[in-house]
TrEMBL record, chains A, B:
<comment type="similarity">
    <text>Belongs to the transcriptional regulatory Rex family.</text>
</comment>
<dbReference type="GO" id="GO:0005737">
    <property type="term" value="C:cytoplasm"/>
</dbReference>
<dbReference type="InterPro" id="IPR022876">
    <property type="entry name" value="Tscrpt_rep_Rex"/>
</dbReference>
<feature type="DNA-binding region" description="H-T-H motif">
    <location>
        <begin position="26"/>
        <end position="65"/>
    </location>
</feature>
<dbReference type="GO" id="GO:0051775">
    <property type="term" value="P:response to redox state"/>
</dbReference>
<keyword id="KW-0963">Cytoplasm</keyword>
<dbReference type="GO" id="GO:0003700">
    <property type="term" value="F:DNA-binding transcription factor activity"/>
</dbReference>
<comment type="function">
    <text>Modulates transcription in response to changes in cellular NADH/NAD(+) redox state.</text>
</comment>
<keyword id="KW-0804">Transcription</keyword>
<dbReference type="InterPro" id="IPR036388">
    <property type="entry name" value="WH-like_DNA-bd_sf"/>
</dbReference>
<protein>
    <recommendedName>
        <fullName>Redox-sensing transcriptional repressor Rex</fullName>
    </recommendedName>
</protein>
<keyword id="KW-0520">NAD</keyword>
<dbReference type="GO" id="GO:0045892">
    <property type="term" value="P:negative regulation of DNA-templated transcription"/>
</dbReference>
<dbReference type="InterPro" id="IPR003781">
    <property type="entry name" value="CoA-bd"/>
</dbReference>
<dbReference type="InterPro" id="IPR009718">
    <property type="entry name" value="Rex_DNA-bd_C_dom"/>
</dbReference>
<keyword id="KW-0805">Transcription regulation</keyword>
<keyword id="KW-0238">DNA-binding</keyword>
Length: 256, 256
DNA sequence: CGTTGTGAACGGATTCACAGCC
DNA sequence: GGCTGTGAATCCGTTCACAACG
């Protein structure tokens, strides 16, 4: 089973660039904040500052969605919130399951950012029978045995894996077999999935290692460049305007 | 190879591209697994498969580090583990503090991937006085009041923020003022930091939103049906735009 | 006016394909 | 023969700069 579909070209012909998609949630968050303050319109410059990107990039990003701004004025906040939400698919309800209810799984279950944006935690699943029935974030934990039926009964297409590394692939296989087609993986493992299934990974220790690399470089530099400016740099509290590297992502779709 | 006198491009980032740095931890993890199985050598093809990248990219990445392979044979696993560890700065000890010991902070404190890679949790810090003294992952939680002294006494340069969004900037400011120069931010907020401070962000809800985008596209494709829904509803408010919206910041790379 | 929207220039990252070496 | 290392080609994303337009 699960064999060769032709490898999908990274970006669909008429699609929005991946880099842009990855920033839409950022814009959405900034816009939501403005919306809550009842700000009616915003310029690309202001919004870009709030989102921590530069304005040319933001305008280019929005241009892929359509012409939603007004020259000389800016963008209508409410309208843009709607357009981006729709583009991201957040106007519909996405039931998700979280598998692995340790500290991390519990943190995810309690995370407000999920529930507040179209994501609904349909179930919490754990392999430990002792957990079964215990409520976490108000939702009773269910045993792994029920994974398949939970997914089918709730029409779940997005799964979150927060298990130990050793269990991740097995859980992944079961999720996929049961119909899940998008996976957010927190376990430090490379998951193999059939074509057509998206995987995004979040690896806590990888991020730290990247920081360590830069930290080490700073330390080394300081030794060679003793004649720099005095003391601390200015109090320039610029927003961190530097782009994260090629984001932490490895888009998806594994080889089979 | 450019041993020539052609002078290098402006930004003196002596060598390794960001994209490569971001993948080194991935390679390291795959290599460590091989090492534990006592595999002596590995080809670029095999290692690439284990790390989930393609082999040309892997070879190009390694070429930035030096010529550590043997043509016709492959790479020596142990040697490569050492070289990458050194490059990433993992041969030294990095004391880190985690601020905000909720579920997420506890998950981080318990996360084995930290300790096993040169990172040492020097302290857990929380604002709740009731937490003080309580051990989490074997380490007693300390109160925020002691943040500055902890950082200075331990020579901490890397801080992890796992607080609610509202507290993140304030915590960040204190960390930076006390000497921290690299921050891993889990709070859904854009952090402002002075030049010279690196910030990397991990935003749980952003990843889910990106998945939702792709998921939606799959669904639409399969139906190929009706295009976008037309009319823009009234004052569309995606969901219960409750408290903290999700938000993301764009981390930093190098000092200016 | 001021600000958007976008072609064009640029630069970095990925991929190709093969020379070089074991 | 097999595999690494790498210039060259290509792809993708960012930035520039300005025309279009309310």
């Amino acid at each position: 089973m699960a064999t060769g579909r032709t490898h999908r070209p990274a970006t669909r012909s008429r699609g929005i660039p991946e880099a842009t998609v990855a920033r839409l949630p950022l814009y959405l968050r900034a816009l939501t904040a403005l919306s809550e303050r009842s700000v009616p319109t915003v310029s690309s410059e202001e919004l870009a500052a709030a989102a921590g990107v530069n304005s040319a990039k933001l305008r280019k990003d929005f241009s892929y969605l359509g012409s939603y701004g007004t020259r000389g004025v800016g963008y209508d906040v409410e309208y843009l919130v709607y357009q981006i939400s729709r583009e991201l698919g957040l106007t519909q309800d996405w039931p998700v399951v979280i598998v692995g209810i340790g500290n991390l799984g519990a943190a995810l279950a309690n995370y407000g950012g999920f529930a507040s944006r179209g994501f609904r935690v349909a179930a919490l699943i754990d392999a430990d029978p002792a957990m079964a029935g215990k409520p976490v974030a108000g939702i009773p934990v269910q045993h792994t045995d029920e994974l398949e039926s939970i997914i089918q009964d709730n029409g779940v297409s997005i799964g979150v894996i927060a298990t130990p590394a050793g269990a991740a692939q097995q859980v992944c296989d079961r999720l996929v077999a049961a119909g899940v087609t998008s996976i957010l993986n927190f376990a430090p493992t490379v998951l193999s999935v059939p074509d057509g299934v998206d995987v995004r990974k979040v690896d806590l220790s990888i991020e730290l290692q990247i920081l360590a690399f830069h930290e080490q470089r700073k330390a080394g530099e300081e030794a060679t460049a003793t004649a720099e400016s005095p003391a601390v740099p200015t109090a320039t509290r610029t927003e961190s305007a530097t782009d994260q590297g090629p984001d932490g992502d490895v888009p998806a779709v594994m080889p089979a």
